[in-house]
Automatic annotation (TrEMBL):
This is Sulfotransferase. It comes from Microtus ochrogaster. It is found in: Cytoplasm. It comes from the Eukaryota. The gene is LOC101999332. It holds the Pfam family Sulfotransfer_1. Residues 12-124 form the Sulfotransferase domain. The lineage of its organism: Eukaryota, Metazoa, Chordata, Craniata, Vertebrata.
Length: 124
């Protein structure tokens, strides 16, 4: 069994599943995972970076999204595409989100977990 370095990226629900699917797609060969960042292997369709990558990729493609199902085109559901829907425990989402935003400059740093919890409950 191949060893994979998982220290380069934060792994929780979605990213962890992408790693598993990538290993299935390559029949367990970790070279693709080790050489291509997760955001290029399974781009987020609703982002300015991810959409162009997806449009220019040859199939089969892995696509990530936080979009609700009703925003996907109807043609998606009559295609041969397969979907894995990840549902996580809200407590895990809270803790994962807190540490993710605490490490990045994407949003104002929440400071304390209590403050982030208040933001979380308000849907921010």
């Amino acid at each position: 069994m191949a060893k994979i370095n998982l220290k380069k990226t934060s792994y929780a629900g979605t990213n962890w599943l992408i790693e598993i699917v990538c290993l299935i797609q390559t029949k367990g060969n970790p070279k693709w995972i080790q050489s291509v960042p997760v955001w290029e292997r399974s781009p987020w369709v609703e982002t300015e970076i991810g959409y162009p990558i997806l449009i220019n990729q040859e199939g089969p493609r892995l696509i990530s999204s936080h979009l609700p199902l009703h925003l996907f085109p109807k043609s998606f559901f009559s295609s041969k595409a397969k979907m894995i829907y990840v549902i996580r425990n809200p407590r895990d989402v809270l803790v994962s989100g807190y540490f993710f935003f605490h490490k990045t400059n994407l949003v104002k740093n929440p400071g304390s977990l209590i403050k982030y919890f208040e933001w979380f409950l308000k849907g921010n």
